[in-house]
Amino acid sequence: MESEGRRWSEMAADCLSLIFRRLSLEDLAVGVPFVCKSWHRASLDPLCWTLLDFHDIDFMPWSRFSREFSDRYAVPRFSFSGFLRLCVARSRGSAVELAFPLLFGASLRDLHVAKECTKLRKVILPNLASEDEPHLPEIVAKWGELEWLEMESKPSSFLETAAQIGRSSNSVVGLKMHGAIKKEDAAAIVDRLPDLKFLCLSRSYLPREELSAIVHGCKNLERLCARDCVGFEADEEVVKWCSGIKSFEHEGSKVFDEFGYDTDECDPLYVHVI
To answer: Comparing C-alpha atoms, which of 78, 121, 80, 69 is closest to residue 98?
Structure first.
């Protein structure tokens, strides 16, 4: 039959694009574009680049991906910043999810590149350098459709960031971070992010009073993760507070740790390792 001799390269571009949308960023960058011209054209469809998840890619200079990328694009040395720019450019504004590599981190330059993705609904940020944290509010200001934000730790600019999110987007339903949660932080969560359905503060310093303010202020919470926190324990009263929340995860949380921390003056370095 004639159809038996049909080649993949002859498949309609729309069909190829539908298949390529299921591939990883690694395959889209160093695999399919170099098979043939038709595959290259199909791989440039912006809808193939809507999910920019860099979590599981090995960006070390000696990794297979880094070496292949350098060879394919004839660059002397691989850089994450360059790869990010390529992915954002190919998305042409259609990216809806962005997950930075947690181990590799992100520079201020990378954040400004991400600012171009104005349709982002979900963002996962790594730890930022202390000098970069003050710039976070101006970055999130561009994400007017943001629904979900995860931060590896609470930035020093959290109050300003939460305020900016409240001004820029009214659809944020998920927040994840850890750090020392103080009275003003709890107030910012309640006042600026009133529609939260998911909140994860696990491994934080979370005093009982701040937990109470959040639980009683965020009326739409469906899931609250507060595992391995210091500052409260899930006694009968706390459990009663959270009785209206579908899922309250509090395993491992306690009032004191072995070093005796029980105030909001705890060492932030300690918070990162509990």
So the answer is: 121
| Domain total of the chain | 1
Residue range 56-65, pLDDT digits in tens: 899 998 999 9
The answer to whether the predicted template modeling score (pTM) of the entire model surpasses 0.85 is: yes
Backbone angles phi, psi at 97, to 5 degrees: -135, 140
Domain that holds residue 214: 178-274
Beta strands in 135-260 (DSSP E): 148-151, 174-176, 198-200, 223-225, 247-249
pLDDT digits (tens, 9 = 90+) for 159-192: 999 999 999 887 899 999 999 999 999 999 999 9
Instruction: Please indicate, yes or no, if residue 183 is contained in any of the structural domains.
Output: yes
Task: Tell me the C-alpha distance between 88 and 199, whole Å.
Answer: 28
User: Would you say residue 157 lies in a domain?
Assistant: no
> Looking at the domain assignment, is residue 227 inside a domain?
yes
